[in-house]
From TrEMBL:
Pfam families: Peptidase_C1, Propeptide_C1. Keywords: Disulfide bond, Hydrolase, Protease, Signal, Thiol protease, Zymogen. The keyword Flavoprotein does not apply. GO terms for molecular function: cysteine-type endopeptidase activity. This is Peptidase C1A papain C-terminal domain-containing protein. Residues 1-16 form the signal peptide. The keyword Protease applies.
């Protein structure tokens, strides 16, 4: 036992001293697992992938306090259950809510997560009758007010997508090659999680996206762009407390949240995540679909956008109520106009 503890201490000291250690290495993964028992790290990414390549897919920008909208406050009369999962609470929309998207070789997490929330909420508000997703491709390519850098694949603020939904509308569109809706996602799924037997092509084989042209027409034949436009009922809503986030999800469905990503998050497999080791890698945007408690640790249930080969079939749990990785600072959604 003493030998084991001594080895763990020496490994921790070595990792702390050597900031150049590969955060995708077996050594780093073993270190994460040796430091805690709340979550399991494992291989999601090939250890030879440069971290710089992964950072290009972290396209979330954290809102400045001066630009934040006034938060929405819900009635305290809305009872908050111990646990909640949007997938089981709205079974008529489980297919839509269960959809794990893939942003591919593009830093579009801000758009694909926002479009997923729009899709969830349209289905929920319609009682399950509106199952066709809202197009992330339309947001990335046509929301010019969202473009902070050269194109939508270089990251943005998710709240701008909800404002655009209200002001201009977003057409329907499913995932790549799905033929769902007017404008499906144009970039094919790829294996950032470079498992040897992965079912997708390697992201490294795809060309870097340097431009996204706005085409106000449907790529799916037989559909009219204007007829396929969906709208938000109002601009973005922001939720500033854990309880208001929970009441919002209870009432209306999933929300998007900004997440500060550290290097250990890249190797998440199961359990309730919190930052254990590694440097900050960048900002990311994810979708919160519920909450619960595991081994007395409160958590959010969230969906990532790195396809279903990452993490727990594309999902992860993260500590709730302590603003883990800034997840509770920037949470947004909007209601659909039916």
């Amino acid at each position: 036992m003493r030998i084991t503890l001594c080895l763990a201490f020496l490994m921790s000291a070595a990792l702390a001293a050597n900031s150049k250690i590969n955060p995708l290495s077996d050594e780093f993964i073993n270190h994460i697992n040796s430091q805690q028992n709340d979550w399991k790290a494992g291989r999601n990414f090939d250890k030879n992938i440069p971290i710089s390549e992964i950072k290009k897919r972290l396209g979330g920008l954290k809102s400045l306090s001066k630009s934040k909208s006034k938060p929405t406050v819900h009635s305290e009369d809305i009872e908050i259950p111990e646990s909640f999962d949007a997938r089981t609470h709205w079974p008529e929309c489980s297919k839509v809510i269960n959809d794990i998207v893939d942003q591919s070789n593009c830093g579009s997490c801000w758009a694909v997560s926002a479009a997923s929330v729009m899709s969830d909420r349209r289905c929920i508000a319609s009682g399950g009758s509106l199952q066709v997703p809202v197009s992330a491709e339309d947001v990335i390519s046509c929301c010019h007010t969202c473009i902070i850098f050269e194109n939508g694949c270089q990251g943005s603020y998710p709240e701008l997508a909800f404002d655009y939904w209200f002001e201009k509308g977003v057409v329907t569109g499913g995932q790549y090659n799905s033929s769902l809706g007017c404008k499906p996602y144009a970039l094919q799924p790829c294996d950032r999680p470079s498992v040897v037997d992965g079912k997708y092509v390697q992201c490294s084989t795809l060309p870097e996206v340097t431009e996204k042209k706005c085409m106000r027409s449907c790529s799916t034949s037989g559909l009219n762009y204007k007829s396929e436009l969906t709208y938000g009922k109002s601009k973005r809503e922001r939720f500033a407390t854990v309880e208001d986030v929970q009441r919002e999800i209870l009432q209306n469905g999933p929300v998007v949240a900004y997440l500060t990503v550290f290097e250990d998050f890249l190797s998440y497999k199961s359990g309730v995540y919190y930052h254990v080791a590694g440097k900050e890698a960048g900002g990311h945007v994810i979708r919160i679909i519920g909450w619960g408690t595991e081994n007395n640790v409160a958590y959010w249930i969230a969906a990532n956008s790195w396809n279903d080969e990452w993490g727990d079939a594309g999902l992860f749990k993260i500590r709730r109520g302590v603003n883990e990785c800034a997840i509770e600072e920037n949470i947004y959604a909007a209601q659909p106009k039916l």
